Amino acid sequence: MRHGLKASVAIMTMLGASWSNPARADWRDDIGTFRVGIVAEAGAGNTVPGLELLADAYTKALGMKVEFVVARDYAALIEAQANAHIEYAVYSATAYATASERCECVEPLVAPVDSDGAVGIRSVLLTRDGKVPDLAAMEAHRVAMAPADSVGGSLLPLAGLAAEGFKVAGNAPFLTHASSAAAAETMLVNGEADALFGWMPAMADGQPHVPDGTVARLEMAGISKAALRVVWASGVLRYGPHAVRSDLDPEAKRRLTVFLINSDRCRRISTIFWNRNIPAASPSSARRTTRWPRRSCAWCQATVDSNSNRRRSIGPKNEDRF
What we know:
single chain; D-Maltodextrin-Binding Protein, domain 2; 2 domains; 11 strands; about 20% strand
């Protein structure tokens, strides 16, 4: 009887091991190598400094082999994730919106927050000395606008105004397209324009406004803050998210979120690329970016209402891209 009981216990122990261990390892076995997709800086080819360090950190977080795949552009990155060639992608806000429309197989995992607490940007219409009192008066004045590929100075205001019922053509006669965002600002400084489309940081709910963006640049150029007034501000264009495939095992998602939000090592190595801080993103907030123009816009902290990710190439220190 005693031998029979021992045998039964041994059998149950073996069965328990066979049921539990493979279940814990299944998602790793199914994936084999976990692939993270990113887009390199323009002109850098497929070279991104620091990938070896990042791959090592992700490998330790997931407990499996991790490879970084450098895509030539966001279109290629989207196709790679849609076709399950990569499990994880680092997107811009607009690239994520495109990916979510391409297939419902992706979801945001974490979103970046700037060191100053900004979660995105707003486009603003700024006037000097109250020359443009409101939007209705805009067409009777000279309004400077950044080049057509500028997010904060052209794409975002045109889309935002249209969403509010103010349809403004890019070639409207009262608009003057400058050669750069800096040139548009100079027009306002020199009196060649009565108003200007620029940008300002968008802060998380409840956080105080940070003096940055176009207003700060105009102040540095000699215009007093008291002379500037915001006539109109767009909705928030949030920074784009780090997104995973929706069918990724929940345990993998949990490990990645904990790693990205709480890992001191991750915070150190994140400076290799984007120098951001990471909040957990929600699909609904991320998809709200679909109303904005599609443009390639990058990393760290977790909230329930974020979707973001901004590349260095359009970071706050490169005003012409905003």
